Amino acid sequence: MNTSGFYRNEDGQLLHGPTTVQFPISVDHPGLNRAQQDSYTYPVEGWYWFDSENEARAFFDMPLVEEPPDPLLVRARNPDGTYIGDDPSTPDIDEAWIPAP
Q1: Do residues 48 and 71 lie in contact, with contact meaning Cβ atoms separated by under 8 Å?
Q2: Where does the pLDDT of residue 69 fall: very low under 50, low under 70, confident under 90, or very high at 90 and above?
């Protein structure tokens, strides 16, 4: 799941704006937009851009969240239905998981 976006730590609560952040009229900034993320000088009103929630949590020194497994993968099985384990001799390939049918 894509968790990139604008993040702000507000009193220990992580706020997230996936595509935009709008500011009140009293703030002298038009707001933040995902398409222009590289054009801003951060922080902007306390907001930063991060490529993932855990990247933001690490920056703000907050506990990381466990990433959910890729929903497009399923456990690999032998013809008899038993699970196939990962082969330790191929560290760059995880044979235990295959694309979902």
Answers
A1: no
A2: low
Distance CA(82)–CA(54), nearest Å, equals 34
Beta bridge partners of residue 20, listed in sequence order: 33
Distance CA 36, CA 49 (A): 11
Distance CA 51, CA 4 (A): 4
Find the angle CA(83)-CA(84)-CA(90) to the nearest 5 degrees.
Answer: 155
Task: Give the residue with greater pLDDT, 29 vs 33.
Answer: 33
Report residue 17 as tokens: 């704006």
- CA-CA-CA-CA torsion sign (46, 7, 48, 67): positive
- 37 token code pair: 């993320």
Average pLDDT (44-63) is: 96
Tokens coding 14: 């992580």
